[in-house]
Amino acid sequence: MTLYSHSRLSTFEQCRYKYKLKYIDKIPSPVKKSVEAHLGECVHDALEWLYKNILSGRVPEMDEVIERYANTWQEKDTEEMIIVGETPKQEYFNKGVKFLIDYYVKNTPFQDGTIDTEKRVWINLGEDFPHKVVGYIDRLTYNKERNEYEIHDYKTANTLPNKSKFENDRQLALYSIAIKELYGDKPVTLTWHYLNYNIKIISKRTDEQLEELKKDTIKLINEIENTKDFPVNRSILCNWCEYKQYCKAWGNSIPEHLLREKVPSPYKKYESEEFPTLEKYFKN
Predict the structure, then answer these.
(1) In this predicted structure, what is the pLDDT of residue 86?
(2) Running along the chain, 284 residues long, what does each successive block of 10 average in pLDDT?
(3) Mind giving me the DSSP string for the chain?
């Protein structure tokens, strides 16, 4: 049995060669992360910290949230980050501060029914299907007035996708399948917070749409399991790819010592006998 995540599925769709390096050959990334990923990680951490405090009965001041963000940024900063273009790192840091200020002002006093943060969920696609999908919900709320659950996801990207992206989004829709199983067949709203625009996008799925999603995901996983050829797919996304330094399409190669050595899985601490390929979901 293989355990999948939305990130793993998306990697296969974007570039099969990257998928092979990361998930089959388990070649460690030559780059720890991009500055965009660093920004997203630090903003997510600050918002998770904010809501964990709220769940414990205390609403932190805005300055405390910014301080948490700044400390996390400094602690996890590295000179090895990918920075595409000429935008200085400080400018990315400043963007994160603005994201958090805008979010705090817009959502205070935070009486929105939050019940959990970074909640791990398991998505069962079918009783006889051997593979599982795991995910991590940024924030889960329960709206008593509407008697429905809300899945919240934070986005720090510069671009705002068109409407079809949200109507066809797989990640949060898969999570809603798990929430329905956990809490009963209540309505689930999918909510994206695009922090760069200080707006939120809302979408819903019918039960029929979720059943189709299960079928489509099963089909994709079966394709992955049966794939033998993993060609490179060159695209604009290559500029942000953590494996570009090893990619044959760019005239590069994998270092010989990595090919010779048995490289341990970078997700080893999350593995277990029951799920030997367990991978914690990392956000894009």
Answers:
(1) 79
(2) 93 96 92 86 98 97 98 90 82 97 97 96 92 96 95 95 92 97 93 97 96 97 96 90 91 86 47 41 37
(3) --EE-HHHHHHHHH-HHHHIIIIIS-PPPSS--BHHHHHHHHHHHHHHHHHHHHHTT----HHHHHHHHHHHHHHH--TT-B--SS--HHHHHHHHHHHHHHHHHHHTT--S-EEEEEEEEEE---TT---EEEEEEEEEEEETTTTEEEEEEEE--S----HHHHHT-SHHHHHHHHHHHHH-S--EEEEEEETTTTEEEEEE--HHHHHHHHHHHHHHHHHHHH--------SGGGGG-TTGGG-GGGT----HHHHHS-PPPTTGGG--SSSTT-------
- Domains located in the chain, CATH noted: 3-109+230-270 (no CATH), 114-217 (3.90.320.10)
